[in-house]
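Ticket #4471: complex job returned nothing on first submit. Input attached below:
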Amino acid sequence: MTARLPREITCRELVRIVTEYLEGALPLDERTRFEQHLVYCKGCSVYLRQMRDTLRATGRLSEESVPPSARDELLRAFRSFHKAGT
Amino acid sequence: MHAVAPSEIDRAGSSVPSDDRRVIEALRRGDEHAFLALVNKHHAAMLRVASAYVSNRAVAEEVVQEAWLGILKGLASFEGRSSLRSWIFGILANCARSRGVREARTTPFSSFADPEEDELAVDPSRFLGSDHPRWPGHWAAPPEQWADEKVLAKQTVRFIGEEIEKLPPAQRQVVTLRDVEGWNSAEICAALGISEGNERVLLHRARSRIRAALERRLGEEQR
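Support reply: We reran it on our side without changes. The output follows.
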């Protein structure tokens, strides 16, 4: 008995399922084909890397600071809330 | 010690982390540092999520302020059945929704399949045609690697923030919660009332657009 070779995926398909891959939502066989494709495809390796770079940079947005005016207003609210005795 | 994988706890989404408990107790005591830390942590994401429901940034800012007041009021009775952040964003979503109703601009999540259903993540002309004799569907114009210091530069991060503002509302909410705030998909689905499949489609579109915008920008810089 010979193992059937899985159908290869194309770059176009890889781009379409990259989020499912990164989110761990691909079935095992598709995941395997995805990773096999990466082995020989430089373009898709770079694409995946760009996606990961995008996620890394997006994550940095959580470090944004609050504008001082909004901050002060909230702090005032917090204080008066506590004075009112909760 | 019991062996529970972190992902298991994540998926259940119901165990109250002791971190949350500490924060809640500090807030109840009137600890201003704890309050400011919490504001700092969530404010920007709250703005992005709120702006999906209302007409402009100024209104979104009012909604977030209103939500914080609601959070302060609710603090005394918060029982910790959900995580602190999903409770916070739940209050925010309520405030934003009722404000959206008053503005006559509701965005029911059920109708969030956007019009650009077939939008491709990458310009189709960058791939070889499906009739190509040797490499159908492969890259004709492959992407190029980005320099690390450019990716994490402040201007790049700010640029991504601007791109997120331009996304359709549902995509903006999902990508903010998943990639900025680091929620898991189960939490997002619960908070927004969408299916996991829907969440992933929205996330995919949002990420693909941000990547494409970054590619245009960083590509120009490199030239």
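The domain at 14-102 of chain B is CATH 1.10.1740.10 (Rna Polymerase Sigma Factor; Chain: A). Closing as resolved unless it happens again.
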